[in-house]
Amino acid sequence: MATLEIRDLHVSVGAGTDGSKEILRGVNLTVKAGETHAIMGPNGSGKSTLAYAIAGHPKYTVTGGTVTLDGEDVLEMSVDERARAGLFLAMQYPVEVPGVSVSNFLRSAITAVRGEAPKLRDFSKEMKAAMDALSIDPAFAQRSLNEGFSGGEKKRHEILQLELLKPKIAVLDETDSGLDVDALKVVSEGVNRFSAQGETGVLLITHYTRILRYVKPDFVHVFAGGKIVAEGGPELADVLENEGYEKYVKAGASA
Amino acid sequence: MGLDTRPLSTLHERGSFEVADFEVPTGREEEWRFTPLRRLRGLHNGSAAADGKILLEVDAAPEVTVETVGRGDARIGTAFTPADRVSAQAWASFTEATVVTVPKETEASAPTVLRLRGEDAGAAAYGHTTVILEPFARATVVLAHRGDATYADNVEFIVGDGASLSVISLQDWSHDSVHVAHQYTRLGRDARFVSHNITLGGDLVRISPTVAYDGPGGDAELYGVYFADGGQHLEHRLLVDHTVPNCRSRVDYRGALQDEGAHAVWIGDVIIRVEAEGTDTYELNRNLVLTDGTRVDSVPNLEILTGEVAGAGHASASGRLDDEHLFYLQARGITFDEARRMVVRGFLGQLIERIEVPEVREKVQQAIEAELDR
């Protein structure tokens, strides 16, 4: 069973002459295959930084702590090594890459992650089935990556990659933001379909409780001031829905 | 730029067939300031003896006539006046010209390929090519340049009323070759012209494509792809001169540069004259810088002398590979090297995939892969 362990993680953004700013201040979290964790918190609490630090974005510098996947040191790995080891980050703002078609991109990613190129026939079939399940127009396969996609199309395309790459641990960074209810349902169904297989741990980062009506978390963590300040079961989401983040923001600031 | 500014590129207005009418460039002139004159091997100052030769091999469509003619042939030199000293020198120095003719209302069933090959970069050669599409003709012409050469030439593309010409000019010279080319296009009424300049090989390559319109409804699309390696100087200077109403032009040139001393120059001049109402034009240049030590000069100039345009714009952007692109691809398990290739392939591929001749398109794709393997 895959396990992602984050211990006392400290992360700064920016470096050089104008100094760096510490964003994560000692994060502890364990995510196991089959579990769904929701990380909730106000804007600026460091939720997305956690996502990008796990994925290895060069903008963020880990200044302390450890991240391991099944005991392997994730922080020692390059971005692509992390992905091949089984980590996946569904991005909040997927970038547009002109001239790189969706099908070419997906095939390259699958080849990299699985270690061998899928047969063209099998790949086409697999891609088409996965696209159908997410109500993605087949014409998408020939379009440039994320170019001219609507917000909802971009998010569905992220979940498409999740389903095709079958990671051990999936981090979904505000995948629900900017989606209308219909798109939210489609995306949530994709996540549920995927996590129902029980082989992946899901770390769902969100600002709103709305998506938790469709994706049921096993654990809810409240993030404030760069660390987890409260933890509980799904009932904690209801508390947040009613009371907001205010008291945690104060707690985080004083900690 | 204000409306009263003089266009930077009205060179053709001072054009002449006499070499002596042009001063020897010193490198301070606007049109020469980016070009390393010392590497021109005398093409610009008359010191290059015309004892070299470019071998021509022709593979013509059955409907198309390709002739080798002497200087006196009445069909050559009608579409242009040399715009600079090298162009005038090439006009004064060639001994044989190539004339390609597509008869009126004839559609060529295959591309016509002119393979130009140099065998000695130490001897200067001069050339002249005239491509004539009679009214309502349609054809694709490929100019494939290879080998070792020091070469200056003028190419005329005369596209008659309602005719359509697609040209692919491939500059795939050896690393010590020098090529200075002028491509002069004249478009008749409702004529269509699509050009691809693919510049990959050569120590110094300087291509100056010019488009002039003789009647309304003309449509020119000028595409270019270049890949400059260490020490290479690849220069493209475009001029689209809108002198008649309701014509269209699109320019999209893209290049990649890698290693010390790689230098790309792109000048994109568009003039919309007072009488050219209803003009629709857009020009774009983008450069992808892959390593340190390279240099890009990109200068778009748009001169609008009428208030009645359908559309006019330009853009230029040069930069490194985008970290966010690489991160996104790497976050899906793709290695840095492969991610870099995918981004470059995608960037140049959007133009390469427009090349309508499959063999040429594949050849260019392979050449780009070879560049990326370096």
From TrEMBL, chain A:
Keyword Signal annotated: no
Any one GO MF annotation of this record: ATP hydrolysis activity
DNA damage keyword on record: no
Annotated ranges, domain ABC transporter: 4-250
Pfam families: ABC_tran
InterPro entries recorded: AAA+_ATPase, ABC_transporter-like_ATP-bd, FeS-cluster_ATPase_SufC, P-loop_NTPase
Source taxon at top rank: Bacteria
Matching SUPFAM superfamilies: P-loop containing nucleoside triphosphate hydrolases
Cross-referenced PROSITE patterns: ABC_TRANSPORTER_2 (PS50893)
Keywords assigned by UniProt, alphabetized: ATP-binding, Nucleotide-binding
Family (UniProt): Belongs to the ABC transporter superfamily. Ycf16 family.
Matching PANTHER family: ABC TRANSPORTER I FAMILY MEMBER 6, CHLOROPLASTIC
Official protein name in the record: Vegetative protein 296
Species assigned in the record: Actinomadura macrotermitis
Automatic annotation (TrEMBL), chain B:
Domain SUF system FeS cluster assembly SufBD core: 120-347
Biological process annotations from GO: iron-sulfur cluster assembly
Highest rank taxon of the organism: Bacteria
Annotated PANTHER family: PROTEIN ABCI7, CHLOROPLASTIC
Family: Belongs to the iron-sulfur cluster assembly SufBD family.
Name under which the protein is recorded: SUF system FeS cluster assembly SufBD core domain-containing protein
